[in-house]
From TrEMBL:
GO biological processes: endoplasmic reticulum to Golgi vesicle-mediated transport
A Pfam family recorded for this sequence: Sedlin_N
SUPFAM superfamilies: SNARE-like
Alphabetically ordered keywords of this record: Cytoplasm, Endoplasmic reticulum, ER-Golgi transport, Golgi apparatus, Transport
Domain of life: Eukaryota
Annotated Gene Ontology cellular component terms: endoplasmic reticulum; Golgi apparatus; perinuclear region of cytoplasm
Locations listed in the record: Cytoplasm, Perinuclear region; Endoplasmic reticulum; Golgi apparatus
Gene (UniProt): Trappc2l
Organism of provenance: Smithornis capensis
Name used for this protein in its record: Trafficking protein particle complex subunit 2-like protein
Family recorded in the similarity comment: Belongs to the TRAPP small subunits family. Sedlin subfamily.
Length: 136
């Protein structure tokens, strides 16, 4: 599951595979946004000094691992990965977040996109789908 949220914490983009547990993913994501906010406030001034912030593993559950990332403009990305997937390393998760960030930047540069609207981009969807296929 991949989620992109602005500083106001309403989702701009949610994508989950498989879709049958989508409601559970929504709950997990909203819970993890609170953890992201706590980590950001704990970092304080150190956050301002960094260009981007990979938060790493926010918290593990029995079924999932939840990772977080925040941009310099306080846009939050959350990724939920199946706990049984032990092949993913920290640097691969970080790389995926960078790809998400770059694709989000491309969307923001589109003159027809209104900041704060839900993301409806075929290019962004394709990038997320290819990332999810790589993980699954």
């Amino acid at each position: 599951s991949v989620v992109c949220c602005p500083p106001q914490n309403y989702p701009l983009y949610i994508r989950s595979v498989p879709t049958e547990n989508e409601l559970k993913f929504h709950y997990t994501v909203h819970t993890s946004l609170d953890v992201v906010d706590e980590k950001i406030s704990a970092m304080g001034k150190a956050l301002v000094d960094q260009r981007e912030l990979y938060l790493g593993l926010l918290y593990p559950t029995e079924d999932y691992k939840v990772y977080g990332y925040v941009t310099n403009s306080k846009v939050k990305f959350v990724m939920v990965v199946d706990s049984s997937n032990t092949a993913l390393r920290d640097n691969e998760i970080r790389s995926m977040f960078r790809k998400l960030h770059n694709s989000y930047t491309d969307i923001m540069c589109n003159p027809f996109y209104n900041p704060g609207d839900r993301i409806h981009s075929r290019a962004f969807d394709n990038m997320v789908n290819s990332m999810m296929m790589q993980v699954c």
